[in-house]
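Hey everyone, long-time lurker, first post.

I ran two proteins through the pipeline my lab uses and got sequence/structure pairs for each. Pasting them in order. The first:
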Amino acid sequence: MAPPRGAAIYKLILALIYVISTLLLVVKVLSPTSVQVVVHGEGEVYVREVTNVYSLSDVVVIVLSTALMTLSGVLLVLPAKPAPLALRAAISGASLSELSEGERRVYDLLVRMGGVAFQSDIVRRSGMSRSTVSVILDKLEARGLVVKRRRGLRNLVVLRQPRAASAPPHSRLGRGQSPVAARDA
């Protein structure tokens, strides 16, 4: 699947910024300026040329191009974080319009938290009581939108990803992996 057109343009702009700032940095670092120092004495004028000096404008250009090069390079290399809308689109079998206000609030909070959170963190950030969040998560789990996994004394809540419509659930298992082992992994 090809990336969206906006993402491709974004990456292209970042690549151009990276290349231009790199070239500018190389040119400025490899070509320092020369400064003439003129001293007027008693009847004499002394002129001395000092080479390999960076002026204030050279330093500013070097610092800015280094910052732009670093920032654009990091943004090019790092993978894009999935947008919350992409996670919202992951709903299969139920739409957001079918959710109650509390269910939608907890679901949206879980999306903003990256799709994975401890139940206690959801309680704390939502401002709802533990029992209310527990009931809402049970309803979301019954709808197939989330999965609650026990981790010690805590529940880890994970947004479910939609299954591919064409592939049966067991076709994505690793070699020698049973459906039970894959579910518990």
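...and the second, right after it:
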Amino acid sequence: MKIKDILDMEKTNLSGITLLKEGMFYRAYNRSAMRMSTKIRALKVNTKLIKYVGQTVMYCGFPDSVLPGIRNLCERKNYIWNVRGETRIDIDGVVTTDEDYEGWTREILKGITVVPSSVTPVVEKYLDSSKNQKDVLAGRIGALFLEILGVLTEAGYGTDQAYDERKNEISDLKKRVGTLEKEINDRGNAAKTSQDEHGCDGKQILLL
């Protein structure tokens, strides 16, 4: 199922959870991800900007080996487990009267800004620029790192088909890493030149 179809489906998903099999994983998107992570099992919710639909998507997932345990949790809560083909499972009977999807979405997106803070000291070490510039660059490094980690994890644990589907994503990430590396080097060299002009020892950037 294409991501656009998934998003359209989730817009009208008022009470259920839809699990979609992708490679060796099951995934829940947007409203399904909220209910899955808050009503059944506390799973990590990831985000991804889908450029061609102009939307940031929330999703969570788990390996197919965990599926029996998820089903047991649902049965304990008296949720209805509906298998719809080989790649889709619907979970019905979830109480949604107390949910706030918009509020949950804001909290998830707000959490994204927390991630880059751990990267800032690395940027502080090498770049002599304003605090605002450092935070912006740290944010880009952190977001790109998490995106790379997500794509490589899915490609590594998924099927050959899943890897093939992500070849273009991996190629795009390589280009973006190269662009960011060049920018960091340019800024570092500019800082070194400025320090040399003032009689200070410059710092050399080493990117592995």
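Reply from user beta_strand_b:
Welcome! Quick read of the second one: The longest strand covers residues 55-63. The mean pLDDT is 76.
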